[in-house]
Amino acid sequence: MVKLDPIAEFREDHRKVRDGLLEMIESLNQKNAAKAGKILGNLNTLVGPHFRYEEETLYPALRVFLGEYVDQLIKEHDGVIATALACAELLKKDTLSEKEAKDAASAARALLIHVSNCDGLAILSERLKRKEINNLGEKFAAARKAGIPLLAWAQTIRKKK
Questions:
Q1: Model pTM?
Q2: Number of domains present in the structure of the chain
Q3: DSSP letter assigned to residue 129
Q4: CA dist., res. 24 & res. 39, Å (int)
Q5: Listed residue (112, 139, 136) closest to 125, CA to CA
Q6: Above 70 in pLDDT, residue 161?
Q7: Residue 23 lies in a domain
Q8: What is the CATH number of the domain that holds 51?
Q9: Tens of pLDDT along 57-86?
Q10: Which of 103, 81, 97 is nearest to 152 (CA)?
Q11: Which of 40, 19, 29 lies closest to 116 in space, CA to CA?
């Protein structure tokens, strides 16, 4: 079995999220709720395993470098999840008002900041021992295999913790 490179996969996920958010912003600027909703659905599917991996495996491993700052990262996830929930609800509508589209685009831009900041964790991950990196790869692969979307994970598994 080919081992997953958790650092490369982590960064690639961020690229996909970045591109998805930029595409979603463009759709929202055009007030295309259907397209923005589809993109959000794709992001929900991609980000679920990613967040699960971060919170259950990566953040605890990086606590050695970041200490209590890890708690702030989890709070940032709270904000991302709340924003995703609000956007999902909004994008159920057939049409968006100018204000709704503008507010949703602003929220998506704010999420880009989290993506950018979070990608910096990859450089810290490189300093972990090979055994820890291998464990990260196994856990990341397991989270992907489970395939639980972000909002479902947040409302079930994460909520129970």
A1: 0.94
A2: 1
A3: -
A4: 6
A5: 136
A6: no
A7: yes
A8: 1.20.120.520
A9: 999 999 999 999 999 999 999 999 999 999
A10: 81
A11: 19
